[in-house]
Design goal:
By secondary structure, the protein is α+β, with helices and mostly antiparallel strands. The chain folds into 3 domains: 216 residues, ATP-grasp fold, B domain (D-amino Acid Aminotransferase, Chain A, domain 1), CATH 3.30.470; 116 residues, Glycoprotein, Type 4 Pilin; 72 residues, RNA polymerase II/Efflux pump adaptor protein, barrel-sandwich hybrid domain (OB fold (Dihydrolipoamide Acetyltransferase, E2P)), CATH 2.40.50.100. It contains 10 helices and 30 strands. It has an 8-stranded antiparallel β-barrel. A 4-stranded antiparallel β-sheet has the order 3-6-13-11. The protein has a 4-stranded antiparallel β-sheet with strand order 23-30-28-25, with no helix packed on it. It starts with 11 loop residues before the first strand and ends in an 8-residue tail after the last strand.
Length: 443
């Protein structure tokens, strides 16, 4: 029976681990030895055979047993990184009846490893699970970087399973270097087509208290507002990147590309002409005008007019220059939904088609719509019955979690548009709600 040191799993949200590391900077050598001895004693007492994880909670006074997980856990790679051992191989060998290959005094820990769990979820919407098709997947690499995943570009993320997409692990000779490598790797990780918690993880791991190790299990909940703050308004460079993505998309869809009439660089034979584009990010709307002239393309936005140039590169990457500000951007489309990855971070926009009604803009305030794809498991309100604000209306289940939709104001449900067992997509109308009718008679 051997123990392979400890893993620090304090950074949690709703009792679910978000970041794990080994070793723990909160433990002294004496407490580490005592905790490892207690874990071995628990396994001996149970006559346990195989890989297992004993969990403790600790404070300044001591440590206390919580439970034992009779398996490897999601965060086992950080233990592998500091010990150089393959725990999956060990587990299989034990299952085949082999003896452990090393004694306790032959096992040593070197350096520091940190793992971040990347989920398909939207932190700005209360961490609701997200689904969709992965359009872009560019994972980081380099010294001390490990990526454990089963996904790639083109894969569909469905609402039927846990939203974990990948584990990103960084190793370094000490904690500061491991943390620095992890943050740098998160910055270079590109996932488009499905919403993820990448931006949340970047803010979390840059927080001064996380950097210094001054954390407890309630840290994320206390700092949730700062960690999930909405992205700033789109900059002119973001708008320019969106326009370039539209032009390149149209160029790729055109036939007879040798025709001068299909040019997208702004050149025109005489005079100049303009084109208006509109984008939406959440509730914000952005209008931009592209001017085509003999000297090229100009972008008019926010009271400014600047020259816009761009060159497509391999894949969905392009170089552009707005005025005298060059940068490289990648773009991924899903219908009219555009995922941009810019030097300022990822942005998700909707390209508004001027010839089609915008469903979200046309939606009446009294419509209850699904905030995510999921299955209707319970309907808790009857049409015509008066309800107070916050009263539960129905329950959606997605990715092993239940989400209750509630009345947005005092009023009543006028009509239901769904039934128990229905699978609905994000934005599907579930009920008509009438505000100000809380005194309606029950039916």
């Amino acid at each position: 029976m051997v123990s392979l040191f400890e893993r620090e799993c304090t950074l949690q949200r709703r009792h679910q681990k978000v970041v794990e590391e080994a070793l723990s900077i909160a433990l002294t050598a004496e407490r580490r030895d005592a905790m490892a001895a207690a874990a071995r004693s628990a396994a001996h007492a149970a006559g346990y055979v195989g890989a297992g994880t004993v969990e403790f909670i600790a404070d300044a006074a001591g440590f206390y047993f919580i439970e034992m997980n009779t398996r490897l856990q999601v965060e086992h790679p950080v233990t592998e990184m500091i010990t150089g051992l393959d725990l999956v191989e060990w587990q299989l060998r034990v299952a085949m009846g082999d003896k452990l290959p090393l004694r306790q005094d032959e096992i040593a820990a070197n350096g520091h490893a940190i793992e971040a769990r990347i989920y398909a979820e939207d932190p700005d919407k209360g961490f609701l699970p997200a689904s969709g098709t992965i359009r872009t997947w560019r994972e980081p690499s380099g010294d001390g970087i490990r990526v454990d995943t089963g996904f790639r570009a083109g894969d569909a993320i469905t609402p039927y399973y846990d939203p974990l997409l990948t584990k990103l692990i960084a190793f370094g000779p000490d904690r500061p270097q491991a943390l620095s490598r992890l943050v740098e790797a998160l910055d270079s990780f590109e996932i488009a087509g499905v919403t993820t918690n990448l931006a949340f993880l970047k803010r979390l791991l840059r927080h001064p208290q996380v950097v210094s190790g001054e954390i407890d299990t309630g840290f994320i909940e206390r700092e949730i507002s700062a960690l999930t703050r909405s992205a700033p308004s789109l900059a002119a460079l973001d708008i320019a990147a969106a326009c370039v993505a539209v032009l390149l998309r149209e160029q790729s869809e055109q036939t007879g590309s040798d025709s001068p009439w299909n040019r997208t660089d702004g050149w025109t034979l005489t005079g100049r002409r303009s084109r208006r584009l509109r984008f939406r990010e959440g509730a914000e709307r952005y209008d931009v005008v592209l001017w085509y002239a003999r000297d090229g393309l100009r972008l008019e936005f926010g009271g400014r007019s600047e020259r816009l140039q761009f060159v497509p590169r391999q894949g969905a990457v392009f170089d552009m220059c707005l005025g005298d500000a060059p940068e490289r951007v990648s773009a991924a489309w899903s219908g009219r939904e555009l995922d941009l990855n810019t030097p300022r971070g990822p942005r998700k926009l909707h390209w508004v088609d001027p010839f089609l009604a915008d469903i979200s803009e046309a939606a009446a305030g009294g419509r209850i719509v699904a905030p995510m794809p999921g299955t209707v498991t319970r309907i808790l309100a009857e049409p015509g019955v008066g309800l107070q604000r916050g009263a539960p209306l129905l329950v959606l289940e997605a990715m092993k979690m239940e989400h209750t939709l509630r009345a947005p104001a005092d009023g009543r449900v006028k009509a239901l548009r769904c039934a128990v067992g229905d699978f609905v997509q994000e934005g599907t109308e579930l009920a008509d709600f009438e505000a100000g009718a809380a005194e309606a008679e029950a039916v």
